[in-house]
Write a structure and sequence with these properties.
Distance between the termini: 36 Å
Largest sheet: none
Number of helices: 5
Oligomer: single chain
Radius of gyration: 18 Å
Strand content: under 5%
Shape: extended
Length: 110
């Protein structure tokens, strides 16, 4: 998968976790600026995304422990671990892009 696909999946998963469906928003990107509403802060968005990733990984860990103890069916364990794997791959892709952007900034002539 390429980065844009992972990014879209991550945004969709974050929206699902918050109970937001794409058809419920009813607004185009950038509509907050047009209506006078304050756009979400980048740091807050990043923190929310990181917290959602940690929560997903914790749920997968709990599902794996429950699966080993025989308290969870294998299907739910595999689903939780697959979601955790996707979350980890997305976090690694974002990290790589941040490092790449930082290196591009360092290479800029002064």
């Amino acid at each position: 998968m390429d980065f844009k696909t992972l990014q879209a999946l991550g945004a969709y998963a974050t929206g699902q976790a918050k109970g937001i469906r794409p058809q419920d928003t009813g607004a185009a990107p950038g509509a907050a600026a047009e209506t006078g509403q304050k756009a979400p802060d980048f740091a807050a968005t990043l923190a929310d995304t990181a917290n959602a990733a940690v929560s997903t990984l914790s749920q997968a860990e709990r599902a794996a422990i429950d699966g080993l103890a025989g308290r969870a069916d294998p299907h739910s364990v595999v689903a939780a671990l697959t979601q955790a794997e996707l979350t980890l791959e997305t976090a690694a892709a974002v990290r790589d892009k941040v490092v790449e952007a930082y290196q591009d900034i360092l290479r800029m002539p002064i």
